[in-house]
Amino acid sequence: MRRLKIGLCLSPSWLRGDTWRRPDSRVEELFTADFHVDVTRLAEAAHLDFVFKPDALLLDPRALEEGPGLSSLEPLVLMGLLAAHTRHIGLIASVSAAYAQPYTVARQLQSLDLVSGGRAGWNVMASLGGADNYGNVRRPQDPQANASDFIEVVESLRQSFPADALRMDRATGQFADVRRIRRVSQIGRYASAGPLTTPARDERRLPLLHAGAAPGAEGFAARHAAAVFVMQPDAETGLAQVRGLDDAADSLGRPRRPLVLPGLSVCLADTREAAQALAGRADLVPRAGKARHWSIVGTVADAVNAIVERARSGAIDGLIALPAGSWQSLELFTTQVVPALAAVGLFREDYSGSTLAEHLAEY
After folding, report:
1. For residue 233, is the peptide bond before it cis, meaning its omega torsion is within 30 degrees of 0?
2. What is the spatial distance between Cα 346 and Cα 267, in angstroms, rounded to a whole number?
3. When you count CB atoms within 10 A of the terminal residue's CB, does the N or C end of the chain come out lower?
């Protein structure tokens, strides 16, 4: 078996249900720097490949009556903060292709990639909600086609000021070879000509994580994504996802399909009974007809055994952890589950590369 790729979702899923009321929830720090830095340092100490920040562009005030709802910090601002407090872990921020401007996003991602030493990645969202907050921007009729255009424009802008254009030659006085700097052609509805004000770190495209299961998602992921974030309640579903992405990649002539990384809701405690109690408070009990992430409720040993079994089935290339129930679930996952996976050869014991692309071994 290949070693797994493991990420951590930065949405604090351990605050679901009424678990935010627990004394150890740290809910008072939810919108602070220290809270997110501590989470990400735990992830980096476990040598995880990346942290991933989902996003939402709307907020239902009624949801705040009994919990955090969709309230959160802005992803790219947060990743800039985390870049300054970490050295190795990948930083994946969510971006809306429906409402954001490619030029602004390209500058932000380019800057994040530079200041983090090549650790930037992104997730492009179709953004089904949030139209009321962007009244002067018309939502595209075909969100997926628009997202493809958005990606291509952002990447074209990123390379409009390529890394090899910089000379910084003190002897000749040439700062840059302006012949290498270029403008960008219109793609779809985006007429952002460039060039970008921020130089590229290198010539590679940024690793893209695709989250979603809309019609045509396999083709979109096979064309653009390094990895897909999927709901995978069981191994059979996962094997179907793998086959679908294999076929989509083959049809495009891509030598390797995107990595399949299901979300793993992991609710851990010292005993199974304590974990079950936490799961009840976190609203993790499956409901008929309601899509759910893969879920493990139990001890560290239970989690390790379940992950090993799923990996052996061939249904996953890794996972994105969503610790649930308590801060303890996060600590047990990063300090015990992940090292146990490394001990059986399913995860690395240290970082072997310095960039997100190297961590994912995709580009």
Report:
1. no
2. 21
3. N
